[in-house]
């Protein structure tokens, strides 16, 4: 039961004992608070001086009681108000924030330095020499005989990050070395390229143009390797998730073999792909957005026969030679023509000058005096030199 106060008659007389009891309680409470605050401060100092490893090993860290924390914080705030200092916890928090602010720029600068120095695994990569890339890749699965494929490219101009990514069968035909089929950013198409073996054949398909269709045939001459364009920032095919240690995208190297005299258009392919047609199950028609697809042997033979028939009906032949040789011969022929025309014009001018000097009389000047020809001046100049 709580202690009750006795009812005295006089207010003044009753006030003194009450005041005494209150002051005693306050003094006791104050002394207790100060003692607890000092003890808590000493414990905090000990914890700060003790290394974290020893504290973790000893396992003697205990959470302070909530009531004790409130009493300690109240007493500490009163003492800080008297001395004019800020609380210790706030000072620690401020230092930690300042340390974090100082740490961030240094981390960023280290990252920039690593990129500038080329030490990052995502550093800009250069295209390796084609001759240094092996024909066979031991990681590529082996299959018997030739497999057939269809690979799409865009012959008309299209910009990616300000770079023209167009590529036609004539561009491939003009290459004097194997061309890397880069820019594949679909996993299904990439997996098809990983399954290719050297010697496989592929249709070159013109896509995203006025007249899409199969334009010719090329051959896979080097099995899959890294597509280094994925690690080239600012390029049309850059992918920041692809690194040197974690290669995500690959390519194969191809060479030109044949350009059809008459391309096989997409409309004709769709007609052949209707139910009951020879291309009913063709993957390119089933998955039209896939840039690299598989072609069965029956489909390959059917399409080659159609291309031969179209060329025969048009009275044309397929083009199998590389475009580089023809371009070089044309350039040589044009150079010869230019040199011949310049030499003939020079000879013509010489003949005209000699004819004028032999047959024509020197014209008379307006004042009646005869003008001296250039040849006469030269003769006089030479005679003057000889006389000297």
TrEMBL record:
First-listed, main subcellular location of the protein, grouped into a coarse class? nucleus
Q: Does the keyword Ribosomal protein apply?
A: no
Q: Where is the composition biased (Low complexity)?
A: 25-34
CDD domains in the record, alphabetically?
EVE
Q: Which residues form the signal peptide?
A: none
Tell me which residues make up the EVE domain: 148-305
Stretches for region Disordered: 1-142, 341-388
Pfam families named among the record's database cross-references? EVE (PF01878)
Does the keyword Nucleus feature in the UniProt annotation? yes
Q: Where in the cell is it found?
A: Nucleus
**Gene3D superfamilies reported in the protein's UniProt record:** ph1033 like domains
- Provide ranges: composition bias, Basic and acidic residues: 35-51, 58-88, 95-104
Q: Where is the composition biased (Polar residues)?
A: 105-123, 367-376
The alphabetical list of record keywords is: Nucleus
Recorded protein name is Thymocyte nuclear protein 1
